């Protein structure tokens, strides 16, 4: 009798865990589809605006899309939108609102999740090219340094004569849960004359 009860409990436990696993996979799949749909739609919008030589005003919180960030050597491409809220970073990389926009003078910062859009950032090396296509034109950067810092080390966002773009993601890349460090890539703008000044 006791063995029969244990067998039934074990059977129901197995089924319950299997169902929970399936539900988790469905949720992750739906989130991935939502992010992919947003990336496709927003990158097409940025490319269309550039082809039409649109020079719209600076993106606002309502407008949203800042541009398309690409690192060709590592095969990374991600739409960048304004903001660093959880909902924003779920579907795109986010421009940190307290930093200048990419076409403005200063150190513009962009954050992304290490397990989605910024996964390839772990392969970035000093000297790699970074391209940012915006409604203000195309900006080219060259990676000048990378580092691992504590989350409180906000000095990486400070204005610098050597740094025009900072990419931030969590570190280590294979860590499960809330990662204890930040992986930072900093780049300087190469003057190409394709970005409209503010």
Total of helices:
2
By CATH, the architecture is named: Beta Barrel
Q: Residue share in helices?
A: 25-40%
Q: Cα distance, first to last residue?
A: 79 Å
CATH homology group: Sortase
Shape: elongated
Unreliable spans are 53-62
Order of helices and strands: HEEHEEEEEE
- Sheet/helix structural class: alpha+beta
Specify the biggest β-sheet: 8 strands, mixed, barrel
Give the integer mean of the pLDDT values.
84
Highest CATH level, the class: Mainly Beta
Strand order of the largest sheet: 1-2-3-4-7-8-6-5
Rg (C-alpha, Å): 21 Å
In short:
The chain has a single domain, classed as Beta Barrel (Sortase, Chain: A), CATH 2.40.260. The protein has 2 helices and 8 strands. It has helices at residues 2-51, 86-91; strands at residues 65-71, 76-82, 93-95, 108-111, 129-134, 137-149, 165-171, 181-190.
What would your notes on this structure say?
It is a single chain. The chain is of the alpha+beta class and 198 residues long. It has a single domain (31-190), classed as Sortase, Chain: A (Beta Barrel). The chain has helices at 2-51, 86-91, and strands at residues 65-71, 76-82, 93-95, 108-111, 129-134, 137-149, 165-171, 181-190. The radius of gyration is 21 Å and the shape is elongated. It starts with a helix and ends in an 8-residue tail after the last strand. Residues 53-62 have low confidence and may be disordered.
Summarize the helices and strands and which ones pair or pack:
Blueprint: H1 2-51, E1 65-71, E2 76-82, H2 86-91, E3 93-95, E4 108-111, E5 129-134, E6 137-149, E7 165-171, E8 181-190
Parallel strand pairs: 2-3, 4-7
Antiparallel strand pairs: 1-2, 1-5, 3-4, 5-6, 6-8, 7-8
């Amino acid at each position: 009798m006791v063995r029969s009860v244990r067998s039934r409990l074990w059977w129901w436990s197995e089924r319950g865990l299997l169902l929970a696993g399936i539900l988790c996979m469905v949720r992750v799949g739906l989130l991935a589809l939502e992010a992919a749909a947003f990336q496709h739609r927003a990158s097409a919008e940025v490319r269309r605006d550039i082809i039409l030589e649109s020079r719209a005003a600076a993106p606002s919180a309502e407008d949203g899309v800042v541009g398309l960030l690409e690192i060709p050597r590592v095969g990374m491409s991600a739409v960048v939108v304004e903001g660093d809220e959880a909902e924003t970073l779920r579907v795109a990389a986010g421009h940190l609102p307290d930093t200048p926009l990419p076409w403005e003078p200063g150190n513009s910062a962009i954050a992304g999740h290490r397990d989605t859009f910024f996964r390839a950032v772990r392969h970035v090396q000093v000297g790699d090219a970074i391209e940012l296509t915006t409604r203000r034109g195309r900006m080219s950067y060259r990676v000048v340094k990378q580092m691992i810092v504590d989350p409180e080390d906000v000095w990486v966002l400070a204005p610098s004569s050597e740094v025009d773009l900072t990419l931030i993601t969590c570190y280590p890349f294979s860590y499960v849960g809330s990662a204890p460090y930040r992986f930072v890539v900093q780049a300087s703008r190469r003057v190409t004359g394709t970005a409209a000044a503010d």
